[in-house]
Structures are given as structure tokens and as C-alpha cells.
Amino acid sequence: MVPKEASPARWESTMMPPGQILPPLLLLLLLPLSPAAPCSPQPNATRFVCTEPTLSTFPSGLPPTTLAISVEFTALATLPPTALAGLPWLQELHLSSNRLATLPEALLQPVPTLRILDLTNNLLADLPANIFTSAGHLQHLVLRGNRLQALQPSWFQHLPHLRWLDLAANALAEVPPAVFQQLRSLRSLDLSKNRLASLAPGALAGLQALEQLDLEGNRLGTLPPAAFVPTPALRLLFLQDNELQELPTGIFHPLHHLHVLDLARNRLRALALPRRPPGPALDLDISGNPWACECQLLALLRQAAPRLTATRDTLCASPPHHWGQEVAVLSQTGDTGCEPKGDEQHVPDP
Length: 350
Prior knowledge:
Layout: H1 8-15, H2 24-30, E1 47-50, E2 68-71, E3 92-94, E4 116-118, E5 140-142, E6 164-166, E7 188-190, E8 212-214, E9 236-238, E10 260-262, E11 283-285, H3 295-303, E12 308-309, H4 327-332
């Protein structure tokens, strides 16, 4: 902590005889201290990290050896077009939790080797059409927690190596058909906590390598019957906290590799799943839906029992003789009213 500066009058009255001139060194000590620039770059460093809350200007003078930049939790509101000039080997750029409302279109042109771009928790309502044109090696793109209202196909036209795309917690109301058509390497797509009321046919076109899709916390009331035809490699599908009332017959049939399916807290009454090939049981969450506990549903849930999740307040809404019973418990008991008479044991096909 810098000590409070004493007034010259007090120094003169307590330390110096009248008429005495202060020595030059002591005079320098009495001058107000200029605050040092926050987060000064180090020569020949490969990583630059700054989390200084008062920082409002992107640091300059970064050495050309820089491979990773992390400027996060600062007051940074704008970036000059030349912010990354002279950094030809930059691979990671982390700019989360700042105050960025816009980005210059030429920002990424000087860094063609960039692999990771994190813009989480800024104020971005839109992006320049060609912002990623020169970022062909980008693998991870995180735009979570901004104010994006629409997706532009041009953003994703030149990202053949992108593997991770996080668009969660924005204000997206739709996913245009084929907007991700060129993302042939994408493995994970997060669209959770947006304002999606529907998913357009062809919205997932081109995502043949996609393994994880998160649509949690939207306003989805239904899904197109062929929604997942373009994503045969999908293994994890999160649909919880939507408004799904029914699912088209056969909607999950293309997903032969599905391991996790979360349908919790929707308005579903019935469910149909394809027969599973030998392998791990499906990890299925059906909590918080008003299920109609008919024989077909109970048989299906019995097959999924090893990995079934259903909270205790997940109760049968119908038929009358099962009303109010716990779905998970009922599906595992033998007294469901679905057992055939006599010695024949047959479980209805799901």
C-alpha cells in the first residue's frame, strides 16, 4: 500500500530548517506516484494472462512468441482491428467476462493458426459476417452468455475443423436450415438456454460427426420427424426443461449410438425408442413428465431399467388405475396389469 503523501508545509515545519532546499532524491520521493500499466507483457513469453478489473485497453507490445492470450474479467469494451497484429503463432484467445459489444471484422486475420476462441459472457448482439473467414483452423468456438439473436450462415462457412461450438445462453429464436452445413468435423453443439420454440427441418444438416447435442432449457413444443437423420453419430442428447408434449414416431430411430437421453421436465405422456444393439444400456431420464402408464411404456421402461432416472415425484397421470403411482417403481413391478394370462410370457414391443 502506498503511504499517504505528507504536505510540503508539514515536511518543512518538522524536518527542514527554514530556507533549506530539499535534496533531489527526497523531492522525487514526494512526487505523486503514477500507477503502473496493468498486466505488462513479458519479453519472449508464450502465454499472456490478465484479469485486472480496471483494464480497458487491450494490451499492446505482446511478443511474437505468444501462443495463448487470456484477458478476462476486465473492463475491456472494444478491440482495435490490429489488436492481434504481429502474433502469427497465436493458438488460444480467451476474452470471457468482459464488456465487448462488437468485434472488428479483421480481428482474426493476423492469427491464421488460432485453435481456440472463447468469448463467453460479453455483450455481443451480432458478429461481422466474415469474422471467421481467415480462422480455418479454429477447433473450439465459445459464444455462450452473449446477446446473439440470430445465426448467420456466413459465420460457419470456413470452419471445416471446428469440433466444439457453444452458443448457449443467448437469445436465439431459431436455427436456420443448413446453417451448420459446413461443420463436418463438429462433435459438440450447445444450444441450451436460448428461445427456440421449434427446430426447423434441416437445422442439423451437415453434422454427420456430431456426438453431443444440448437443447436444454428452450421452449421446444415438438421436433420435426427427421430432426436427427443428419446426426447418426449422436451419443448424448439433452432435451430437458422444454415444453415437449409428444415426439414423432421413430424420431430416435437413426440414433444407433445413443447412450444418454435426457427428457426430464417436459410434458410427455408417451415414449417410443428403437431396439438397441448389444452394448451399454441407455441412460434415460424421464423425470417430471405426466406419463400415461400404459403397457407399452412400462415395458419400454423395464428394458431401460439399469440406467433409468426418474425422481420420486414423477407419477402416472393415467390410466385411472395407475394414477398417482411412481412411474419408476411401477415399471419394475410385476403387477402392472400387463402380464399375459396363462404360461405365455410376452412383453409388448416398445
